[in-house]
Amino acid sequence: MSKVDAVILAGAPAGGLAPTAEGGRGSCRAMSRAMIPIAGKSMLAWVVEALRGAASVGRIAVVGNITDGPGSPEPGPSGVDLVVEPGGNLMENIKRGIEALEPEGPVLIVCSDVPLLTAEAVDDFVERAAKLDVDLAYPIIPRAHCEARYPGIKRTYLKTGDGVFTGGNIMLVRAEFVFRNWGTVSNAYAARKQVFKLARMIGMGVLARVLAARVFPGVLRLAMIERAAGKMLGARVAAVVSAYPEIGEDVDKPSDLEAVERLLGSPR
Q: For a Cys staple, 159 with which of 115, 217, 225, 246, CB 3.0–4.6 Å?
């Protein structure tokens, strides 16, 4: 298996997930979410460990402020290769990470708030995504897998005629696609929470089917979503169905953090 370089996005603030001086949550809001301690390591350290254990991953760059908090990875073979100053948003951080690595092939983009991530899950996704002739491959996980493996963690799901899925927190992209379509990709990211603007970009018909699929899942198929996303981004896009729910279990609220701490054996 050819190795791919990885960019870990660690620029998000901890917000209400940050530990207080008394050991609770809610203060130190300037702290990076990536540096929140779980079971003796930062969330970032858990992710780095998974990537370092993956046969498919070569160099690792972290984009974010990662100097505060326990478990910060050290440069070198056992940690990260590059630490990059973050920009103003997620898309800018992706661009900065890719520019810093100057990769020769596809790049794995990984969020820093998936401490349950495993090397096996990474290798499975990269191996199958790399076989596709696409610019962007994105994992989706069946609801049944998520609920069977992690019944205490709630996720948002999309009903389709092919099944009920949640999205993952990693993706494989071609660097040239990111730079070639930077304006389009940035506009799509900016419109992600603006329904009507997003509808104009992705197509009102597809958006209507997404809404209707809540009641009639058969009207929405994965191939339809792939085509619509590809049209919006000016790229070839593919969804990769993953049997590894840890890819989709991100920590973005206190209940997620509590569930993950239990799973990783951290005392409360």
A: 217
- Residue 38's domain is classified under what CATH number? 3.90.550.10
Give the DSSP letter string of the chain: ---EEEEEEE--B-GGGSBPTTS-BS--TTSBGGG-EETTEEHHHHHHHHHHH-TTEEEEEEEE---SSTTPPPBSTTSBSEEE---SSHHHHHHHHHHHH--SS-EEEEES--TT--HHHHHHHHHHHHTS--SEEEEEEEHHHHHHH-TT-----EEETTEEEEE-SEEEE-HHHHHHTHHHHHHHHHTTT-HHHHHHHH-HHHHHHHHHTTT-GGG--HHHHHHHHHHHHTS-EEEEE-S-GGGT----SHHHHHHHHHHTT---
**Spatial distance between the Cα atoms of 256 and 16, rounded to a whole number of angstroms:** 12
CB 146 within 8 A of CB 245: yes
Are the C-beta atoms of 31 and 23 separated by less than 8 Å?
Answer: no
Residue 10 lies in a domain: yes
Q: Does a structural domain hold residue 133?
A: yes
Residue 268 within a domain:
no
Residues in the chain: 268
136: in domain: yes
Split into its structural domains, the chain has a count of 1
Show the domain range for 19: 4-263
Q: What is the pLDDT of residues 57-86, one digit of tens each?
A: 999 999 987 764 444 444 433 488 999 999
Over the stretch 184-239, which tens digit does the pLDDT of each residue have?
A: 777 776 655 555 555 555 565 665 666 666 666 777 788 988 988 888 888 899 99
For the chain, the C-alpha Rg in angstroms (whole number) is: 18
Q: What single letter denotes the amino acid at residue 238?
A: A
